[in-house]
Amino acid sequence: xxxxxxxxxxxxxxxLALTGCGRSDTGTSKPGSxxxxxxxxxxxxxxxGDTKVGLAFDVGGVGDQSFNDSAYAGLKKAVSExxxxxxxxEATDGEAESAREDRLRTMADAGxxxxxAVGFAYSEAVDKVSGDYPDVNFAVIDGFDPTGDAANxxxxxxxxxxxxxxxxxxxxxxxxxxxxxxxxxxxxHMDLIKKFEAGFxxxxxxxxxxxxxxxxxxxxxxxxxxxxxxxxxxxANGQLDRGADVIYHAAGGSGAGVFAAVTExxxxxxxxxxDSDQYLTAPDDQKAHILTSMLKxxxxxxxxxxxxxxxxxxxxxxxxxxxxxxxVGYSTSGGFVDDIKAQLDQWAEKIKAGTIKVKTKP
Length: 362
Prior knowledge:
The chain is of the alpha/beta class. It has twelve helices and twelve strands. The strands form two sheets. The chain has a six-stranded parallel sheet, with helices on both faces. A six-stranded mixed sheet has the order 7-6-8-9-10-12, with helices on both faces.
């Protein structure tokens, strides 16, 4: 089983802890969805099957409009198509590490296999618990090995090729810009977010070599860069003032400020969302300005992990869900990229075929 070194793992802990991209810690739910897994967990109540899946949610549970909802969609597909039974558990904001461990142990003791934990915050708990249950298969969405020295062959770390998805929305920006100036707003200036920047810039340049990409980061190293809508708005306004008419954010909660700035700038200005289809959850006045979103398909990773166990060949070690695996992509809600969809799909096919190698660094 491939393991990162301890130094590399520590670096990854810091990187993932700072991103804030793709998960919500607010506990906010969309109308009618319920505020927790328990409130909307009818699928597990009625599901029956020989394979019993445990899904450990991050903070927010079902209704978070992000990673938890996407993972739950993957579970629902597994119940429907694979005939599995299931149970879920939800994290609470600020809970102790021991609470995550207890949640996983309770599922393992109840016979759940596999157990899928949503979010990197479960990495430490999974590393500790999985050693005590060698016959149970565990997976961590965006997870990592925190020690680098324990070969737990029953753990899968499920990551994503964010650079490839970012290439496609970069191509959309390059095709849609009228000013030949587009913007990228990152939450924190760090390697993981620069991966988004690299793919986006490459996509812009691939379709529009004349276009200039204006790059701005809210913070150099402070975690607050992913929870600062005012900071996101300030950076976006600076790019709008310099002529950008399409801005892509990889800034977590700070992206709300980017959307606000673009909406206030008026007709002809576009924003691009990240991780989930942000058009679907944006206020009505912002929808007309959200060109597309870079999708991170947590539902695909969750379903594939469950299917691998059902098929008797459980995923292990590190897996990257890229374009070829339908792990990343772009949204079409609103119909704003319908006229260029064929071109974007052609670029996607080139990436899948390996004709185009998408950079991970600017």
